[in-house]
């Protein structure tokens, strides 16, 4: 296991440990009445303090299997702004690897480490029909490394920005923790397909599994 793989494993374990450390029992008063637990208020109807609206966790993102290969991890901090709205920020790390084929049979394996951040918002759209289905939008900025051409060893870096929209389905485990499956479409992918592929792989679709 190389240094990068060990780092990815460590980040995922830390994110999962922090997230699972938040699991608490839902308020017994509401569960006994057959009601869903409140996300921003106590069972008595008082607003929850800021600290009890925060969620800590993370997940796996930017997964592309094959050539190119990429996988990312993203620790996040989310805030329950209202009963239906969640706001959050995250830090991203993506490992990217691609094998290039040239005329004459020459090949080149390219490795890159990308890092950046994102802000996102989620809004539960139809809770009376499908609970925990959120409209999801975010802005992501990632710093990528690249070479000008195959004949140079000079490594350059640039920022790649992306606006993403889609849906997230969250399976709650407690008031402050859930398992989330997210499908987003990268609106910026075709505007910069070469560098976008360094971060997101060969498709504008982004699939994530996260825990917060």
For this entry, give a set of tags.
212 residues, signal, elongated, DUF3575 domain-containing protein, 9-stranded antiparallel sheet, Porin, 4 helices, alpha+beta, 9 strands
Distance between the termini: 28 Å
Q: Any idea of the CATH class?
A: Mainly Beta
Q: Give the CATH topology.
A: Porin
- Number of strand segments: 9
The figure for the number of domains is 1
Largest sheet: 9 strands, antiparallel
Biased composition (Basic and acidic residues): 28-44
Signal peptide: 1-21
Protein name: DUF3575 domain-containing protein
Keywords: Signal
Description of the structure:
Residues 28-44 have a biased composition (Basic and acidic residues). This protein is an alpha+beta fold and 212 residues long. It has one domain (3-211): Porin. The chain has helices spanning 3-20, 28-32, 50-53, 193-200, and strands at residues 54-64, 69-73, 76-80, 85-101, 107-124, 133-147, 155-174, 177-186, 205-211. Strands 1, 2, 3, 4, 5, 6, 7, 8 and 9 form a nine-stranded antiparallel sheet that branches. Strand 5 (107-124) and strand 6 (133-147) form a beta hairpin. It is elongated, with a radius of gyration of 20 Å. Residues 11-28 have low confidence and may be disordered.
């Amino acid at each position: 296991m190389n240094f990068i793989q060990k780092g990815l494993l460590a980040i995922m374990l830390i994110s999962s440990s922090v997230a699972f450390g938040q699991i608490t029992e839902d308020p017994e008063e509401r569960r006994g009445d057959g009601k869903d637990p409140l996300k921003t208020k106590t069972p008595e109807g008082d607003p929850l303090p800021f600290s009890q609206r925060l969620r800590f966790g993370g997940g796996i993102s930017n997964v592309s299997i094959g050539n190119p290969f990429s996988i990312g991890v993203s620790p996040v901090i989310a805030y329950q702004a209202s009963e239906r709205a969640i706001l959050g920020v995250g830090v991203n790390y993506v490992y990217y690897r691609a094998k290039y084929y040239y005329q004459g049979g020459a090949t080149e394996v390219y490795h890159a480490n990308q890092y950046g951040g994102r802000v996102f918002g989620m809004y539960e759209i139809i809770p009376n029909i499908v609970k925990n289905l959120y409209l999801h939008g975010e802005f992501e900025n990632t710093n990528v490394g690249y070479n000008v051409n195959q004949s140079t060893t000079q490594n350059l870096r640039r920022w790649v920005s992306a606006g993403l929209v889609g849906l997230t389905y969250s399976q709650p485990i407690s008031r402050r923790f859930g398992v989330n499956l997210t499908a987003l479409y990268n609106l910026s992918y075709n505007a910069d397909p070469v560098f976008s592929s360094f971060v997101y792989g060969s498709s504008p679709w982004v699939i994530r599994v996260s825990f917060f």
